[in-house]
Amino acid sequence: MSRAEASGAPSDAGPVPSGAEPTEPPIVRAEGLVKTHHGEGAPVKAVRGVDLTVGRGEFVAVTGPSGAGKSTLLHLLGGLQKPDSGSIWFDGTCLDSYGESHWAVLRRRRIGIVFQFFNLVSNLTVADNVELPALLAGRSPKRARADRAELLEELGLAGKERSMPGELSGGEQQRVALARALVNHPDLLLADEPAGSLDSKGTREVLRLLSRFHARGQTILLVTHDARMASAADRVISFFDGRVVDDAVLDTDDGARRRGTGVAGVLELKD
Ligand SMILES: Nc1ncnc2c1ncn2[C@@H]1O[C@H](COP(=O)(O)OP(=O)(O)OP(=O)(O)O)[C@@H](O)[C@H]1O
Question: Which of 3, 8, 13, 220 is the most exposed place for a label (fewest CB within 10 A)?
Fold first, then answer.
């Protein structure tokens, strides 16, 4: 069964012409995304026409000043908010017609998300927080337990299975959140300021873990205003006033290669 079939969604990929190499679609493609928030005051145009492609295995950081619209963009890509206009494709499947329940199934099976404030279920143990998404995705209890045990061991949390989230440090809670996000081996990990409420030791730890999972092929989209975190990625998208203003692939030798998808020139970003 293909991944598209596994997600319960029809694939848009047409037949492969004979003689042509089948090419894998990007994990995410977005075109013309627009989102305005209607809160208490005047409407806020948070995302103002964004085109974006994230390839399989990429580690992309979206960076920019506070209020630039980074989190809104991540929420749109994870289906947590609906764009006013524009389209999103996930692994070649257009999600325009997806409602909340369809998005929930897609997230459960193929998209892991970590947030700044962990969002663990406070009255469940560490073990249950990590096993729950595996069970909801249809894993057997035995397999969910085994996957949970392996991840917690890997994330340095062996022995904490019976702890409640409130008994853990911020860094430990974020590692549990990472385990929960990764337990179903998602095609895409979305991380929204995952070190935003951690001290420098916790920040280093999260950075190290993201880099380790990326080295094994995990596709990651990280939202951060922290330049040090962004530099762990292999591509940095600068976001300003709801738009992509720069998109650079980081080279280890000579700094950055521009992809040419943003406006010319690099903006000095203030935070
Ligand atoms: N639910 C909402 N209702 C009203 N306005 C919102 C909402 N969410 C975000 N905004 C506004 O939209 C703009 C973009 O917010 P967003 O959180 O996406 O930016 P950001 O770049 O992630 O900022 P930060 O780094 O401070 O989190 C801001 O002006 C914010 O106040």
Answer: 8
